[in-house]
Amino acid sequence: MLNPDEIKKDFPILSREINGQRLVYLDSAATSQKPQVVIDTIAAYYQTINANVHRGVYTLSEEATAAYESARKKVADFVSAKKEEIVFVRNATEAINLVAYAWGRANINKGDEIVITEMEHHSNIVPWQILSVEKDAKLVIWPVEDDGTLNLENLENLITPQTKFVALSHVSNVLGTINDIEGIIKKIKGINPQIVVIVDGAQAVPHLKVNVNHLGADFYVFTGHKMLGPMGLGILWGRQEILDNMQPFLGGGEMIREVTWAKTTYNDLPWKFEAGTPNVEGAIGLGAAIDYLNQVGMDEIRDHEKKLIKYAMDKLSGDDQIKIYGPTDIEKKAGVISFNLEKVHAHDLAAVADSLGIAIRSGHHCAQPLIKSLGEQASARASFYLYNTEGDVDALIAAITKAKEVFKV
Amino acid sequence: MNKLDNLYREELLWVSQNMTNKKIMKSPTLKARQVNPLCGDEITLMIKTKEGEIKDVTFEGAGCLISQVSASLLAKSLEGAKIRQAQKFSDKKLLSILKIDPTPARMKCALLPLWTLRIAFENYGQR
Fold it and tell me: Within 10 A of B119 (CB to CB), how many other CB atoms are there?
């Protein structure tokens, strides 16, 4: 059984104080905190083996390259992928944009349809909007049901002979909904196996065991900083055949095999998509984060989060001034709870929470269309990770009580 | 005074519950809407002018207490002002009316109504 009090000790930031109170960090859906071992690994990289990768024949460069590529292997193993299929980029947003530019511009034509869900983060909306406008394609929206889930039966109407592409998230960053990706993709490909599917796994990979082979997607993206790794390293996974057939996204060093004035031939996967000096410290730091997550165990992490969600949902739903959005079935919900306190704007609630040392998110969570469909303009959001405790939930409840006093509601 | 008491002074809480100028104006002379992209707070200012003078100001919007109270107090303090004076309305002046000292993130909430006012005047200038 995972002991969050012990785990907290591995995260130095969690022992600091905010406004004279113990920091209670409930915004891991935005970014996770980092354990000491990740911080140490990054420092050790710069202290001992820093050099540019894939370039030098000297020892340092060989060591840096080996460390960088071994981090790639760890990432690949973590999601049961081949390492050739793991492309390092800046963030999940860039991974989606890479697909929109390199695959989308070559394959989407006038009159084609792109289906996206109503629960997408702006990063899985805007690239497809830009592409649709540019190519005169049609963006089709898959609405979210009142309980915060997607109804698979809708696919029969949404998917038409013009549908070329579907983009959807594995876990909603606002509602915490865990979408049945395997079932959804099976249904899509059952209608037309040629439809290409991208899954935004930014909120899934840190919290659930993910096997990209089982899901049936063509592309899957996630990001290191939400899973205990440093910022600045996103991951694009793509099926090898599809990546092989794509043109590069960015041109430059590293992604080439040979450059002449007549023409340039490209490097093998995954380096074909990694132009320029990569984020070596980011990859190595993420490798250390993955070791840490594996040591704790992803099943343990999920079980712990389920316990916390249940504990928090029980407390919050007992208060009739609180409105909770998204699924109530914890089997369908990751560690994200969005809610509003009646007559108190989410920012004001978050400000009161901050005065007590509690970090919660407030606003539209980069998902304005979804928030609007909930009939709201903003919500408060608490999100959990392996280092959160029931005591953290209690602190949140105390902040809500305090907000009621301050705003007299 | 702690951070919270500074931000949510009694007077501002009172204003938030008594915003009589939060309403739609029929045929305003000037109108502008602004959204804070960071948080989604929105303000629409509606202004009635006559012979270079501001006669009436109302607003509509959704957002945190700070942005809405700021809009209400700004609207109130503009009434009767000459347009030329109102065009010079400074950030400092609005903060002095609010009597708060917001953090950089909340500064955007406090000043959103003033940015909206400036857009309204820009539109006015272009007519």
Answer: 17
Q: Are residues A213 and A338 in the same domain?
A: no
Query: How does DSSP assign A176-229, residue by residue?
Result: -BB--HHHHHHHHHHH-TT-EEEEE-TTTTTTS---HHHH--SEEEEEGGGGTS
Clarify whether residues A14 and A58 are in a common domain: no
Round to whole Å and give the CA distance between A66 and A382: 39
Look up the domain containing A338 and give its range: 4-30+298-407
Q: In chain A, which residue's Cα lies nearest the Cα of B102?
A: A351
Q: Residue B13: its chain A contacts at CB < 8 A?
A: 406-408
Sequence-ordered list of residues with C-beta below 8 angstroms from that of B65, at least 6 positions apart, any chain = A345, A347, A348, A407, B8, B12, B13, B16
Angle at A393 between CA A405 and CA A203, to 5 degrees: 120
User: Quick check: B40 and A363 CB within 8 A?
Assistant: yes
Task: Of A226, A381, A376, give the one whose Cα is nearest residue A290.
Answer: A226
Interface predicted TM-score (ipTM): 0.89
Q: Catalogue the E-assigned strands of A48-147.
A: 86-89, 113-117, 138-142
Maximal C-alpha separation, chain B: 47
State yes or no: pLDDT of A305 exceeds 60: yes
CB contact under 8 A, A406 and B106: no
Contact status, residue A2 vs residue A304, Cβ threshold 8 Å: yes
Annotation marks residue A366 as catalytic: yes
A53, A278 Cβ separation under 8 angstroms: yes
Burial of A409 (0-12, 13-18, 19+ CB in 10 A): exposed
The pLDDT profile of chain B, 127 residues, written as one tens digit per residue, is: 477 888 898 999 999 999 999 999 999 999 999 998 877 899 999 999 999 999 999 999 999 999 999 999 999 999 999 999 999 999 999 999 999 988 888 899 999 999 999 999 987 765 5
Report whether B109 contacts B36 (CB < 8 A): yes
Whether the CB-CB separation of A226 and A33 falls below 8 Å is answered with no
Q: Is the same domain home to A271 and A339?
A: no
